[in-house]
C-alpha cells in the first residue's frame, strides 16, 4: 500500500480538510484506491490527473454524492461523513460540478435558491421573491457578476450560466469550495474574473480545491498540487516547486517527450471552398477561403470573433444570409445537419456535454448513433458490426471504460468527450469541423487526438479546427485562418508564423 503521509502541502497554515485512505469502487472499476488529500485554510489546492484518474469521484465522496467504501474525512479536525449534498452544504462544503445541472426554464435567482428558498417571515412559509431578488443582487454586486437575477437560464450563454453556478457555491459561505473544471467553458475575461473571486475566498481563509487540465492556470492559481493516477494518490507538492513537465510526468507516469506528433501529412488539391459566407443572425460576414485535401486548417481568434459561427454556418445549423460552399468544385447546400452529414461533413460541437450526449444510453449507442447505415445488413442492424465500430472508437481514443455496454454518463467527463469524437469519425466525413476538440481532455490523450487528426489528413480528409490554445494550432495545423469581429482578418502559415502575428490579426476588427 502506498504511503500517503506526505499528502500535505508545505505551508504552515492550519489544516482545514483532511481526507484519508479514501476508497471507492463502481462495478468493474476501482475509482479510488487509498487516496489522501490535505487542504490548508487560505490556500488553493489543485487536483490533477488524466481523464478517469478519479478526481471528480474523490470530490463527490467529500460532497455526499457518493458513499465512500472506506476512509475518513476530517473537517476542522472533526470527523464528518456527509450522506447528501445538502448536508455537505449545511456544514460548510460547496462544489461547482464539472457538468452543469441547472433548471434551464427557471430564472437565475430560482436556480440560486433552489432547495433553500427564503420565507416571507418566520411565521409565513411562502417564498419571498423580493428577498430572493435582493439577496441575489447583493451577492452579484459583491462578486461583480453582471447578470440580472430575473434572466431565464436558457437564454444565457453557457459561460454566464457557469458564473451563476460559481456565485451560488460562494453564496453558502462555505469553508471548503470545490471547483471541478470551472473554466472549460469560460472566456478569458471570465477566467480572470473567477481568479479574482478565488483570491478573495483565499484571503477569507477558505480552502479551495481546484480541478483543471490547464497547466498554466494551475501553476498560476494554486499553492499546492496533488496528482492522481489510476485512482491512486501519486504526489503532493507546493506549486512553486513544480514545472509543467514535472506535472505531466507525474500524471502520465512516463516522460512525454513530444506534445505534438510529427506533421507528415501531404496537402493536395482544393477540396472545400467557401465564398462570401455571411450569417443571418450573427456578425459573421463575408468569409471566403479554400481548404485543401489532406490539410489541417486552424481557425484562431478571440472569444466571440465568430469561429464557432463559421463552423455552424458551414454545417447548416446556423442560418446563412449569403454565401456559397463548394466541395470538389460542386456546390453543396448544407441546409441542415442531416444534409451536411449526407454531403460528408461532420461537426464536433464545442458544447458536446450539453448537445451531444445521450446520457441514459450506453457507449455503443452513443458511438454508433450517427452512422447507422454502416451497420445495416438487409433491414437489420448488425450487432457485431456495431460492436466492432465501438471497439475501434474505444481503442483509437483510449477511452477508459469497463465495457461498451457501460452507460455513457458513468464515464469521467473527458472520456465522455472521446466517445462523441469517435461518433463523428465513424460517419467517415470528408470535411471534419472540430470546435475545441481537446477541451477537457488530459495531456496524454491530447497527443492521441492530434495523431488522429493528422492521420485523417493523411487519408485525404480536410480538417477545420477551432482552438483557443495557440500552441495547439501551431503544433497541429498547416495553415491558420484568423477571425476578428466576425470577419476573416488574415491567414498565416503555421510553420512560420508566431503567436504575436496571430494575436495582432485577432485584434484587427475586434
Ligand atoms: N457513477 C459512476 N458509475 C460507474 N463508474 C463511475 C461513476 N463515476 C465515475 N466512474 C468511473 O470512475 C473512474 C474515475 O472517474 P472520475 O469521473 O472521477 O475521473 P476524473 O479524474 O474526474 O476524470 P476527468 O478529467 O475526465 O473528468 C472512471 O473510470 C469512471 O468511469
Ligand atoms: Mg472529472
From TrEMBL:
Give the UniProt keywords, A-Z: ATP-binding, Cell membrane, Membrane, Nucleotide-binding, Repeat, Sugar transport, Translocase, Transport
Q: What membrane topology was assigned to this protein in its record? A: Peripheral membrane protein
Residues in a coiled coil are none
For this protein, the record's SMART domains field holds:
AAA
* Domain (ABC transporter) ranges: 17-255, 266-510
| Annotated localization | Cell membrane
| EC number of the protein | 7.5.2.11
Q: What class of enzyme is it?
A: translocase
CDD domains the record matches: ABC_Carb_Monos_I, ABC_Carb_Monos_II
Molecular function per GO: ATP binding
Q: Which Gene3D superfamilies match?
A: P-loop containing nucleotide triphosphate hydrolases
Q: Which Pfam families match?
A: ABC_tran
Q: Which reaction does it catalyse?
A: D-galactose(out) + ATP + H2O = D-galactose(in) + ADP + phosphate + H(+)
Function comment: Part of an ABC transporter complex involved in carbohydrate import. Could be involved in ribose, galactose and/or methyl galactoside import. Responsible for energy coupling to the transport system.
The family assignment reads: Belongs to the ABC transporter superfamily.
- The name this protein carries in UniProt is Ribose/galactose/methyl galactoside import ATP-binding protein
Q: Which organism is it from?
A: Enterocloster hominis (ex Liu et al. 2021)
Amino acid at each position: 500500500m502506498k504511503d500517503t503521509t506526505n499528502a500535505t502541502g508545505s505551508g504552515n497554515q492550519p489544516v482545514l480538510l483532511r481526507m484519508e485512505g479514501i476508497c471507492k469502487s463502481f462495478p468493474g472499476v476501482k475509482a479510488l484506491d487509498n487516496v489522501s488529500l490535505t487542504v490548508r485554510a487560505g490556500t488553493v489546492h489543485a487536483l490533477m490527473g488524466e481523464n478517469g484518474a478519479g478526481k471528480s469521484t474523490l470530490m463527490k465522496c467529500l460532497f455526499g454524492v457518493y458513499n465512500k467504501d472506506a476512509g475518513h474525512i476530517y473537517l476542522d479536525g472533526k470527523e464528518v461523513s456527509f450522506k447528501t449534498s445538502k448536508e455537505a452544504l449545511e456544514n460548510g462544503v460547496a462544489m461547482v460540478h464539472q457538468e452543469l445541472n441547472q433548471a434551464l426554464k427557471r430564472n437565475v435567482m430560482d436556480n440560486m435558491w433552489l432547495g433553500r428558498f427564503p420565507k416571507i417571515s418566520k411565521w409565513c412559509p411562502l417564498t419571498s421573491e423580493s428577498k430572493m431578488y435582493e439577496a441575489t443582487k447583493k451577492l452579484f454586486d459583491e462578486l461583480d457578476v453582471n447578470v440580472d437575477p430575473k434572466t431565464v437560464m436558457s437564454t444565457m450563454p453557457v459561460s454566464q450560466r457557469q458564473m451563476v453556478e460559481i456565485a451560488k457555491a460562494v453564496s453558502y459561505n462555505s469553508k471548503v469550495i470545490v471547483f471541478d473544471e470551472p473554466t472549460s467553458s469560460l472566456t478569458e475575461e471570465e477566467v480572470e474574473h473567477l481568479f479574482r473571486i478565488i483570491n478573495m475566498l483565499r484571503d477569507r481563509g477558505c480552502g479551495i480545491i481546484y480541478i483543471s487540465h490547464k497547466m498554466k492556470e494551475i501553476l498560476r492559481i494554486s499553492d499546492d498540487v496533488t496528482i492522481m493516477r489510476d485512482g491512486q494518490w501519486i504526489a503532493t507538492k507546493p506549486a512553486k516547486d513544480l514545472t509543467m513537465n514535472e506535472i505531466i510526468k507525474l500524471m502520465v507516469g512516463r516522460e512525454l517527450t513530444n506534445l505534438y506528433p510529427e506533421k507528415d501529412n501531404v496537402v493536395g488539391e482544393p477540396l472545400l471552398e467557401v465564398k462570401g459566407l455571411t450569417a443571418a443572425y450573427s456578425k459573421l460576414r463575408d468569409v471566403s477561403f479554400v481548404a485543401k485535401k489532406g490539410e489541417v486548417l486552424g481557425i484562431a481568434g478571440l472569444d466571440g470573433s465568430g469561429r464557432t459561427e463559421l463552423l455552424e454556418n458551414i454545417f447548416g445549423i446556423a442560418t446563412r444570409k449569403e454565401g456559397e460552399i463548394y466541395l470538389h468544385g460542386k456546390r453543396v447546400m448544407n441546409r441542415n445537419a442531416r444534409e451536411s452529414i449526407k454531403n460528408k461533413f461532420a461537426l464536433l460541437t464545442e458544447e458536446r456535454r450539453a448537445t451531444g450526449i445521450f446520457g441514459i444510453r450506453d457507449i455503443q449507442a452513443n458511438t454508433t448513433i450517427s452512422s447507422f447505415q454502416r451497420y445495416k445488413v438487409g433491414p437489420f442492424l448488425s450487432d457485431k458490426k456495431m460492436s466492432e465500430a465501438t471497439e475501434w472508437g474505444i481503442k483509437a481514443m483510449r477511452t477508459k471504460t469497463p465495457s461498451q455496454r457501460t452507460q455513457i454518463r458513468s464515464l469521467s467527463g473527458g472520456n465522455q468527450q472521446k466517445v462523441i469524437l469517435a461518433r463523428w469519425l465513424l460517419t467517415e466525413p470528408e470535411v471534419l469541423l472540430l470546435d475545441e476538440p481537446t477541451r477537457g481532455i488530459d495531456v496524454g490523450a491530447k497527443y492521441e487526438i492530434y495523431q488522429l487528426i493528422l492521420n485523417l489528413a493523411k487519408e485525404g480528409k480536410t480538417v477545420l479546427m477551432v482552438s483557443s490554445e495557440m500552441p495547439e494550432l501551431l503544433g497541429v495545423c498547416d495553415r491558420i485562418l484568423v477571425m476578428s469581429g466576425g470577419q476573416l482578418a488574415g491567414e498565416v502559415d503555421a510553420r512560420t508564423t508566431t503567436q504575436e502575428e496571430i494575436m495582432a490579426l485577432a485584434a484587427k476588427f475586434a
